[in-house]
Every structure is written in structure tokens, then in C-alpha cells.
Amino acid sequence: MVMQKNVERLGGTKPKIVVLWGVPRSISTAFEKTFSQRDDTEIVHEPFADVYFFSKWRRSDLFGDCPEHYEYSASMAMEAIMSKVAPLVFCKDMAFQALPYISKDFIGSAINTFIIRHPLETIASIYKQNVSVTEEEFGFTALDRIFSIVTNELGKQPIVVEANRFRRDSQQVLSQYCQSIGVDFEPQMLQWETGSLKQWKPHEIEFQAQWHQTLENSTTILAPTEVKVELHTEDVEMVERAIKIYDRLSAFAL
To answer: What torsion do the CA atoms of 77, 203, 100, 76 make, to the nearest 10 degrees?
Structure first.
């Protein structure tokens, strides 16, 4: 019903829904920022986060409690995506936040794309936030599962962005990505004013500012820098498993 209303309001043109699935600290929000510069695009930022972290169906208390989101459901998260009215709806989410709540039908209703970053770099960035994560929250197993659904079960060609390749040659990778999803690349996608991606809700302000400080102070995609990390003993096997997933998915990178 929601999609039908969108079609009617757009004069019969069905919105193109693109989802970028990522893992934490994978440069996914910076990639999302490029699409926020387009006049034809509505952005949906991590709609499943409130379900995963704050609702009565939550699977983690990493960010504490937020009672006003206790009843926030997966159907409400999906509504946040499907109710947007624009030629292009671009949704970015962590695969692990969505996977417990979505069906193959939902995945099949969108163009699914992926962003991947080396696990040693993502865990180093997580350590800088002074938090510890479970293997589920690390995100690679869920990303691998959605990738398998898209490629093996739905038979779709993979569209994968490797984070550092994107950071080194943003225009080329973004141009290829746009071509893959069937839209034109626009040069203004790579320049913006400093500031937040969106107006954060009260319960988001503190941790979003913490996790996205570099992006909020930038005006374009920043080149990668060398990352060194000493793994916590309890994370060694988790990271080793994630590296195998990274190697498998990054082989398809644009």
C-alpha cells in the first residue's frame, strides 16, 4: 500500500530503492553522504538501529536505554524506507542491525549493494571509540549472509565497494557504482559543507557525534591513512574469521 501511494504521487514512476549494507567503521556514512548531495535522492540512515539497540526486540544494549523507542518495530523501520517519495531512495544500514528482522522478500525489493573494509582497520577504529563489540555487532557474518542471499538465492550480480579503494579514487569508484545501480554520476556528490549528515534525534546526538566526528568536519572524501592495531586477545579469532569474509567479498569490488 505504501509503495502504491508513492507510485501514484510520482505520477506512476516507481522509486528506485538502493540499500548499502555495511559493517561498523567501514566508511559507509561517508559514502552515504555523497548521495545526500543529489537533488533526486532521499536518504534513510540506519532505520533498523533503533530496533536492534532500543526496542523490546533489541539484541544489544551497547548504547543504553531509550524508552521512547521501546515499541519501535521492524515494520516501522521498513516503512521509513518504503514511504519515501523520490526518484531515488538511498538507505544505508549495518547488515547486523537489519538481518534479524528482515525477510528475503524485503531484500529482493531493493537494489542491494555492499561496502567492505579490512577487519583490522574496522576493529582499530572501534577500539578508538572505547567500546567492545560481539561478533554479531562486528558485522561481518551478517554482511556475508545478506551477500549470500543476494547473490546465491536471488541470483543478483554483486555490487561491492572496497572502502580504501573508494577513498583513494572516489570519483572513479562512485561513477562505477552509479552506473551499476542505473543512475548518472553527479560531480557535486563529492563536495559538501561541514556538518552532520542529518539532524540527529536526542538519543543519537552523543554517539553520532563521537562516531562521525571526522566526517562532520570534512568537505569531501578523505584519503586513507596507515592503520596499526594490536588486537585484543579475545578478538583474534573473530577478526580472522572476518578477514576470510572480507577477502571473499572484496574480490568483487568495483
So the answer is: -20
Amino acid at 139: G
Reading the block at residue 223, the C-alpha cell is 584519503
Amino acid, res. 238: M
Torsion sign (Cα): 150, 208, 28, 5: positive
pLDDT at residue number 206: 59
Phi, psi of 66 (to 5 degrees): -145, 85
Q: What domains can be seen in the chain, in order of their start residue?
A: 2-250 (3.40.50.300)
Give the number of C-alpha atoms closer than 13 A to the C-alpha of residue 33, restricted to the C-beta side.
23
116-166 residue pLDDT tens? 999 999 999 999 988 889 999 999 999 999 999 999 999 999 999 999 999
- C-beta of residue 40 within 8 angstroms of C-beta of residue 88: yes
CA distance 53 to 49: 6
Sequence-ordered strand ranges (E) for the chain: 16-22, 41-45, 88-94, 111-116, 160-162
DSSP 253: B
Mean of all residue pLDDT scores within the chain = 90
Q: How many residues does the chain have?
A: 254
C-alpha cell at 86: 523520490
The C-alpha atoms of residue 60 and residue 57 are separated, in whole angstroms, by 9
If 0-12 CB within 10 Å is exposed, 13-18 middle and 19+ buried, where does residue 131 land? middle
pLDDT tens digits for range 36-74: 999 999 999 999 999 999 999 999 988 889 899 999 999
**Cell (9 digits) for 57:** 526486540
* Residue type (1 letter), 54: F
